[in-house]
């Protein structure tokens, strides 16, 4: 097989060229790869660019531009040709293919022809003479046996193998000999002094001339005629500024110099001198060239021709540069760099014009020229510095002649040189004139560093550069200008502003205020009508020091010349008020000018001035109010003027005192005038006496007008009467009243501090700071300069606080010291500061009541604060207690009320007051309990705005409770509330009769208690005048009985006309009218009312506020004079007793009805026979009367007496009596009201639902209804009345409608589910809707719901195969699909379909906890007609993964697992709980965070959360955590 030929580009010589077929006779074609061609072009371009970069810096600017342009044009032309070649190459692909084919065929043809030719030549020429050679047997034997061949010719060794090198010892010996020869040549020859620095080493000598060159020479033999051989030349001249670190001499130039010097060394007797002369001249020329280049570059880049200019440059000879060309000089300023003919070797030297000293000139040359760093810039900078120092030295001498008395020194220092000139004494360095010279122009520049904006420095600068005759005047102006700035700096932290002018309409006549004078106007911020004029003068003998003169001016402001000021403006301390006008008053008019004696102003009381004057410091004064103690002298900085600060502070501080003193005099309040306190601590204004509050004779007409505009006092309170002995005692205790002025550290506002000093107090407190005899009270007021009347009025108002509170405390202190009243056991006085009275009471005396006088309300106010372990519930009735105190003006009565009502109020405060949702509408919040205090002893409680309880606080630790929905005027109930059914029976379970009658004496067994301690309307010191009915305080009856007490002789009630009634206080009121008068009429009899007379038609029933029911021995007040308000109204302010009595609401018969019970002769004894009109509960809840009387609707209107302990039991949260109901602790009262409310709502649901049929019940409080085949009975648990119970019975089937009976177990499950899930806390009426709808379902569907209920209450019945627990939602949870509004009933029936919601929770596994288990809320729809159970879906929402999994499972069960004769609801739910799996068993999320892609309430129907987060916002968390089966209801 013929070999395959190689491609054309891979053949040897392909790149060199080939001869295609048909072109053998023509020229050869040269080819090249495109990549190689591009590489060559890029390398050529880069090479040319590098050459330009190396050569252009040494050319002029025009040459650079020409070279760059030529390079750009050449490169552009080259790449244009390359671009054309590339474009052509893209279009000749077919020609290339044909050319390659032709070349390949031609090559094949050529190979065949050459092969034939070679074979013919071999046969004709080579093979004819072919013979076998004679083999070299000896050589072959030698190689094969010995492995070597020693028969080569010797000429090969001689010509190829080099000779052996000499040894290191021979090399060392030769170099040492060569060193000796060189040393001999140098000693015997002529050597210039510049070349005396050399070193001989390794057979060569190296000469070095500093900063010029270094050359190495040697000799090639020891003969004296052998010339020197130049080995190396190193040029040491460098340009470190513009050379970029490169060598200044090219290697070709160095080679040329090397050849030139080597040629001159042959046959030259002074060879070494010739070497020095050549290299020295070359290096000096190079140095001058470097300096010239630097100058041009410096002039081109940084400076211009006016600053530095090259005047003359002779290459290799000299360089002349001029500077400071703007400066007018005859010779000009220039320097010349040239060789120095005076020195040996002629080094470079600098010649200055005008000439400098020899020392300075040599220093300049050594720094800039004869150094390693050859720099023209350094040369010019150093020259300018020396010139600047010289010129500033001359100026310094001139300033010293002008300022002879200046103590400060003139300093000339720094680089660049700066001359500092002080103009004041003392003077800060920042305040001195700093004079320097502009390095570019040589002109003087001056400025003051502390005052860069000084306008005088520009004029002074022009004066220094021109005519200097104006220099003294400018220095004087500069002194005044700097002094002005010092004044401003001194007043920076004072309430004043310095200005140089004031807007006068007409210039004042005073010479001081004329224009052109050096003066400063100081405006006081707090006193706009007063200015301070400061006159500045130079001291005649020492003009560098200033003296100050102060004038106090009184000004007024006017808008034009026609505005005439009032004459009162001329007074000293008058503040002219500016009425509001359309045109503001901008112009100033001087009314009066007073000159201050500077010495007297700064040497007042408590002011010390330094006696000694330092030679370098000005005279300074001490602090304004510095104490005379041994205190170091204050050294002020130079810019601080202590005299000015002292005078401004003095005016600012004393003027308010003078204004206040004038205002006190107008109010006829005596005072001692302004004084300086001991040790000069502060200014003080002593008030000698203050008037008695309520007396307006001391007020001016303006004050009276203000009093008329004040709001009137409250109608419910009266001003306390100030007895004369109380006023005298207070005046004896007042030791002093002082007014001082201070500054608030936080707000920096000036305030008045009024100090009252009292001698002890009549009331001893337990506060540790109130144990001494000296008591101080501090009152603060803002300094309102424009309204000092307001300050005095506030002072008098605060004084009234002290006086009015003292009048109450004075009487209270006497009662507190009376041990018979036992006030010390009730409370403790924690603090009495003459302004506030702080009382501590309660079991531990930790709750406090603060009593003070309020000026705004013109009455006493109370504030309550709780303790560490208790809250103060009296804050609820703060207004009622304050009203009582303002009417009675008795702290003793308030103390008894607070003591007796603390426990019941604390119990009431434990009731929840949080707003709840879902009652009655889900989106409307309703308060659980709302406290509505009516008086200090009357409280109304509303529950969910439906029920109302009325609580009255009685004596002997008793509280009466009645239904607040019953009106006191008529038989109707209040429209806002609903009567509480069963309230009497519930409260009777907590009644302790022994405690009720514990306070009665033995002789009172047969007689009822007096209205003094029992009824609403009792008089005497314990009654609350003007308060609503029942609002009286009965707590003084035990310790301080009034004149109407039954124990007082002559005030007994008359004998009863009928036998005494039962002593049981819970027996309904008797229908017999009263024979005695009211409690306020003593023993008045009314004989016209007997037993046989019918009751008055306008008295429907008695007021149930008393302790005893209505009887002849217990007269009741007339209901016409008592008002029973709603929740937001108060009682009538006063009422009168009526002799008329009311008939009992228990019976509407005439008196003498046989149904009335006979009274018991002793309290607590059971009645002899049962009656429908009497009843009650005894101790421990034992029924005394019949059950019917207690449960009647009107029974709750009769008050029930409870002890404080029983009320605490009612209101304190406690566990539920039914242990199966696992909820948070609630108070028994809340559970009872919740059950009553649920029962009421159930009754309303039965009436509104068509599917429910109400049945009549003979038992009170029982709801009886029936549904399809079932009869339901809902009742309260009569044992504790805190839970509802459902009793379900199966109705017998009817012929027209047969039913499938439920098992007793199923009925029991329904009852238990209702008790623990529906009617359990939290009480939500919508759960009743759901359970009623479930009970109305067909029996076969209801059975499946019963199975779900059973599985919810007992999850263990599902076995181990269940992976989820189930809970049935009775209300719509917020985390579910918003199919039904949140909080509504979650069971919806319609079109033979049932929609309900299941809350399923994953059972923990693998050691997980319940709190980490995910939970889902699924909307389930069951179709009764098709027996199909599936997940409810909404088309407009995207289906979530968990929703899709649950829906798929239910569809699969409907397709394969359902049975036709069986309801599919419970089997489908069981299959879902068994087979539903999370996506790949996702890891548990952190608490309170959603699992998976669906959040709470997001998705089609699945809300994902955790067990701890209930889908129902109203369900407490404790329902879900302990018992998994308890779901949201």
What is the beta-strand fraction? 15-25%
Q: How would you sum up the major sheet? A: 6 strands, antiparallel
Query: What is the number of helical segments per DSSP (H or I, 4+ residues)?
Result: 30
Radius of gyration: 60 Å
Percent in helix: 25-40%
Shape: flat
Total number of beta strands = 43
Spatial gap, N to C terminus: 98 Å
Poorly predicted runs of 5 or more residues = 1-28, 570-581, 609-633, 697-716, 1001-1188, 1482-1529
- What would you call the structural class? alpha+beta
Mean of residue pLDDT?
A: 76
What does this structure look like?
By secondary structure, the protein is of the alpha+beta class. The chain has 30 helices and 43 strands. The strands form 10 sheets. Strands 38, 39, 40, 41, 42 and 43 form a 6-stranded antiparallel β-sheet that branches. It has a 5-stranded antiparallel β-sheet with strand order 13-14-15-16-17, with helices on one face. It has a 5-stranded antiparallel β-sheet with strand order 18-19-20-21-22. Helix 9 (358-368) runs antiparallel to helix 10 (376-402) and helix 28 (1339-1353) packs parallel to helix 30 (1465-1475). The chain is flat.
Write the layout of secondary structure elements.
Elements: H1 34-55, H2 61-90, H3 93-126, H4 137-146, H5 155-160, H6 168-188, E1 198-201, E2 204-209, E3 213-219, E4 228-235, H7 251-265, H8 271-301, E5 308-314, E6 318-323, E7 333-339, E8 348-353, H9 358-368, H10 376-402, E9 411-413, E10 418-421, E11 433-437, E12 444-447, H11 456-465, H12 471-490, E13 496-499, E14 519-524, E15 530-538, E16 546-558, E17 587-595, H13 598-602, H14 642-666, E18 671-676, E19 683-687, H15 701-709, H16 724-733, E20 734-743, E21 750-759, E22 774-782, H17 788-817, H18 823-826, E23 827-832, E24 837-841, E25 847-854, E26 859-865, H19 878-888, H20 891-909, E27 915-916, E28 926-927, E29 929-935, E30 938-943, E31 947-954, E32 958-963, H21 983-988, H22 993-996, H23 1187-1190, E33 1200-1203, H24 1204-1211, H25 1228-1248, E34 1253-1255, E35 1263-1267, E36 1270-1276, E37 1284-1290, H26 1304-1318, H27 1326-1335, H28 1339-1353, E38 1364-1368, E39 1388-1390, E40 1393-1402, E41 1414-1423, E42 1428-1431, H29 1441-1457, H30 1465-1475, E43 1503-1506
Helix pairs in contact: 1-2, 7-8, 9-10, 11-12, 14-17, 20-24, 26-28, 28-30, 29-30
């Amino acid at each position: 097989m013929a070999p395959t030929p190689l491609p054309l580009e891979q053949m040897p010589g392909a790149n060199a060229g080939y001869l295609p077929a048909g072109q053998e006779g023509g020229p050869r074609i040269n080819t090249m790869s495109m990549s190689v061609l591009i590489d060559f072009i890029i390398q050529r371009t880069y090479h040319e660019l590098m050459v330009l970069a190396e050569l252009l810096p040494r050319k002029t600017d025009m040459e650079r531009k020409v070279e760059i342009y030529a390079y750009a044009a050449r490169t552009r032309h080259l790449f244009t040709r390359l671009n054309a070649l590339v474009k052509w190459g893209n279009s000749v692909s077919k020609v290339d293919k044909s050319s390659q084919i032709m070349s390949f065929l031609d090559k094949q043809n050529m190979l065949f022809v050459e092969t034939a030719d070679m074979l013919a030549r071999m046969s004709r020429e080579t093979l004819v003479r072919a013979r076998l050679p004679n083999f070299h047997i000896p050589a072959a034997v030698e190689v094969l046996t010995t492995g070597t061949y020693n028969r080569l010719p010797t000429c090969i060794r001689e010509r190829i193998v080099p000779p052996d090198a000499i040894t290191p010892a021979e090399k060392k010996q030769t170099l040492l000999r060569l060193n000796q020869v060189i040393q001999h040549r140098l000693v015997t020859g002529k050597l210039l002094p510049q070349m005396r620095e050399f070193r001989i080493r390794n057979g060569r000598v190296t000469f070095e001339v500093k900063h010029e060159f270094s050359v190495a020479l040697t000799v090639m033999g020891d003969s004296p005629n052998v010339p020197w051989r130049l080995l190396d030349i190193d040029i040491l001249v460098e340009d470190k500024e513009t050379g970029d670190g490169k060598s200044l001499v090219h290697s070709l130039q160095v080679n040329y110099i090397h050849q030139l010097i080597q040629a001159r060394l042959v046959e030259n007797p002074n060879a070494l001198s010739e070497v020095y002369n050549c290299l020295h001249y070359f290096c000096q020329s190079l140095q001058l060239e470097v300096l010239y280049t630097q100058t041009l570059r410096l002039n081109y880049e940084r400076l211009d021709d006016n600053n530095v200019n090259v005047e003359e440059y002779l290459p290799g000879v000299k360089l002349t540069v001029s500077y400071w060309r703007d400066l007018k000089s005859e010779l000009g300023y220039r320097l010349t760099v040239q060789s120095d003919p005076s020195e040996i070797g002629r080094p470079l030297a600098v010649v200055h014009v005008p000439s400098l000293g020899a020392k300075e000139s040599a220093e300049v040359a050594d720094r800039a020229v004869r150094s390693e760093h050859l720099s023209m810039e350094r040369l010019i900078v150093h020259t300018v510095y020396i010139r600047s120092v010289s010129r500033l030295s001359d100026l310094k001498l001139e300033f010293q002649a002008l300022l002879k008395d200046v103590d400060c020194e003139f300093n000339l220092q720094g680089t660049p040189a700066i001359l500092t000139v002080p103009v004041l004494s003392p003077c800060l360095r920042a305040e001195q004139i700093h004079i320097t010279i502009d390095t570019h122009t040589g002109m003087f520049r001056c400025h003051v560093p502390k005052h860069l904006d000084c306008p005088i420095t520009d004029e002074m600068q022009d004066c220094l550069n021109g005519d200097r005759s104006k220099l003294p005047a400018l220095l004087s102006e500069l002194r005044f200008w700097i002094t002005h700035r010092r004044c401003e700096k001194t007043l920076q932290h004072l309430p004043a502003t310095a200005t140089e002018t004031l807007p006068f309409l007409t210039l004042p006549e005073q010479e001081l205020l004329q224009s052109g004078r050096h003066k400063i106007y100081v405006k006081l911020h707090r006193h706009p009508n007063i200015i301070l004029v400061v006159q500045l003068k130079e001291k005649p003998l020492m003009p560098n020091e200033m003296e100050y003169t102060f004038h106090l001016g009184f000004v007024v402001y006017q808008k034009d010349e026609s505005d005439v000021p009032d004459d009162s403006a001329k007074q000293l301390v008058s503040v002219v008020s500016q009425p509001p006008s359309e045109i503001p008053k901008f112009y100033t008019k001087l009314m009066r000018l007073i000159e201050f004696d500077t010495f007297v102003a700064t040497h007042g009381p408590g002011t010390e001035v330094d006696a000694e004057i330092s030679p370098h410091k000005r005279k300074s004064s001490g602090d304004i109010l510095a104490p005379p103690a041994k205190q170091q002298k204050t050294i002020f900085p130079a810019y601080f003027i202590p005299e000015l600060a002292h005078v401004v502070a003095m005016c600012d501080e004393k003027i308010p005192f003078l204004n206040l003193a004038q205002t006190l005099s107008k109010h006829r309040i005596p005072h001692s005038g302004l004084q300086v306190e001991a040790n000069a601590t502060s200014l003080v204004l002593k008030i000698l006496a203050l008037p008695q509050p309520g007396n307006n004779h001391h007020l001016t007409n303006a004050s009276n007008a203000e009093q008329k505009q004040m709001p009137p006092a409250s109608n419910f309170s009266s001003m306390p009467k100030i007895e004369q002995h109380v006023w005298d005692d207070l005046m004896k205790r007042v030791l002093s009243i002082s007014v001082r002025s201070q500054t608030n550290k936080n707000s920096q506002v000036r305030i008045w501090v009024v100090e009252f000093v009292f001698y002890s107090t009549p009331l001893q407190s337990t506060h540790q700071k109130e144990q001494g005899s000296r008591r101080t009270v501090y009152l603060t007021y803002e300094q309102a300069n424009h309204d000092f009347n307001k300050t005095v009025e506030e002072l008098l108002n605060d004084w009234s606080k002290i006086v009015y509170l003292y009048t109450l405390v004075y009487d209270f202190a006497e009662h507190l010291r009376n041990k018979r009243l036992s006030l010390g056991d009730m409370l403790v006085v924690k603090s009495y500061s003459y302004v506030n009275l702080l009382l501590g009471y309660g079991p531990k005396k930790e709750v406090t009541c603060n009593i003070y006088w309020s000026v705004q309300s013109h009455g006493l106010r109370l504030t309550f604060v709780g303790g560490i372990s208790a809250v103060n519930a009296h804050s609820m009735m703060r207004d009622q207690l304050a009203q009582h105190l303002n009417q009675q003006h008795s702290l003793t009565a308030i103390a008894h009320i607070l003591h007796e009502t603390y426990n019941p109020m604390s119990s009431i405060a434990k009731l929840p007051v949080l707003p709840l949702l879902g009652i009655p509408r889900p989106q409307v919040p309703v308060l659980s309990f709302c406290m509505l205090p009516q008086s200090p002893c009357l409280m109304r409680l509303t529950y969910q705005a439906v029920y109302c309880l009325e609580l009255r606080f009685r004596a002997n630790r008793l509280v009466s409770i009645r239904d607040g929905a019953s009106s006191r005027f008529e038989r109707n109930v209040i429209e806002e509330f609903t009567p509480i059914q069963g309230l009497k029976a519930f409260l009777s379970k907590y009644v302790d009769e022994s405690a009720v009658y514990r306070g009665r004496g033995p002789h009172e067994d047969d007689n009822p208690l007096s209205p003094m301690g029992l009824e609403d309307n009792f008089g005497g010191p314990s009654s609350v005048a003007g308060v609503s009915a029942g609002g009286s305080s009965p707590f003084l009856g035990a310790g301080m009985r009034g004149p109407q007490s039954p124990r007082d002789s002559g005030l007994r009630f008359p004998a009863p006309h009928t036998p005494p009634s039962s002593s049981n206080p819970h027996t309904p009121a008797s229908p017999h009218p009263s024979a005695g008068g009211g409690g306020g009429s003593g023993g008045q009899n009314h004989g016209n009312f007997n037993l046989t007379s019918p009751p008055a038609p306008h008295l429907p029933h008695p007021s149930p506020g008393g302790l005893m029911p209505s009887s002849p021995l217990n007269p009741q007040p007339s209901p016409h004079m008592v008002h029973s308000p709603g929740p937001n109204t108060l009682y009538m302010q006063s009422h009168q007793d009526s002799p008329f009595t009311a008939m009992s609401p228990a019976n509407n018969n005439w008196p003498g009805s046989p149904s009335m019970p006979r009274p018991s002769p002793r309290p607590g004894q059971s009645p002899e026979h049962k009656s429908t009109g009497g009843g009650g509960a005894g101790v421990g809840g034992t029924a005394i009367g019949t059950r019917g009387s207690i449960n009647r609707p009107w029974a709750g209107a009769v008050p029930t007496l409870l002890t404080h302990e029983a009320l605490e039991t009612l209101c304190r949260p406690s566990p539920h009596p039914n242990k199966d109901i696992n909820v948070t602790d609630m108070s028994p009262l809340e559970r009872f009201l919740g059950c009553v409310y649920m029962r009421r709502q159930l009754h309303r649901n039965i009436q509104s639902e068509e599917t429910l049929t109400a049945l009549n019940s003979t038992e009170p409080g029982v709801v009886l209804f029936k549904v399809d085949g079932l009869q339901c009975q809902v009742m309260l648990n009569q044992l504790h009345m805190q839970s509802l119970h459902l009793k379900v019975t199966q109705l017998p089937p009817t012929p027209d409608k047969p039913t499938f009976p439920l098992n007793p177990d199923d009925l029991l499950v329904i009852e238990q589910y209702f008790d623990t899930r529906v009617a359990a806390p939290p009480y939500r009426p919508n759960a009743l809707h759901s359970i009623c709808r479930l009970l109305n379902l067909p029996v076969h569907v209801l059975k499946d719901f019963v199975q779900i209920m059973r599985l919810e209450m007992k999850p263990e019945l599902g076995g181990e195969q269940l992976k989820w627990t189930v809970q049935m939602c009775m209300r719509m949870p917020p985390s579910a699909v918003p199919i039904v509004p949140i909080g509504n009933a979650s069971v919806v029936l319609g079109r033979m379909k049932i929609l309900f919601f299941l809350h399923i929770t994953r059972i923990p596994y693998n050691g997980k906890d319940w709190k980490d288990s995910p939970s889902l809320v699924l909307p389930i729809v069951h179709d009764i007609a098709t027996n199909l159970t599936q997940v409810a879906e909404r088309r407009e929402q995207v289906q979530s993964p968990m929703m899709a999994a649950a829906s798929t499972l239910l569809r699969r069960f409907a397709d394969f697992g359902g049975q036709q004769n069986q309801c599919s609801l419970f089997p489908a739910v069981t299959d879902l709980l068994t087979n539903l799996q999370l996506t790949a068993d996702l890891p548990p999320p952190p608490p309170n965070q959603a699992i998976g892609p669906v959040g709470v309430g997001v998705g089609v129907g699945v809300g994902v959360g955790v067990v701890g987060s209930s889908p129902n916002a109203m369900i407490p968390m404790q329902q879900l955590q302990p018992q998994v089966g308890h779901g949201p209801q």
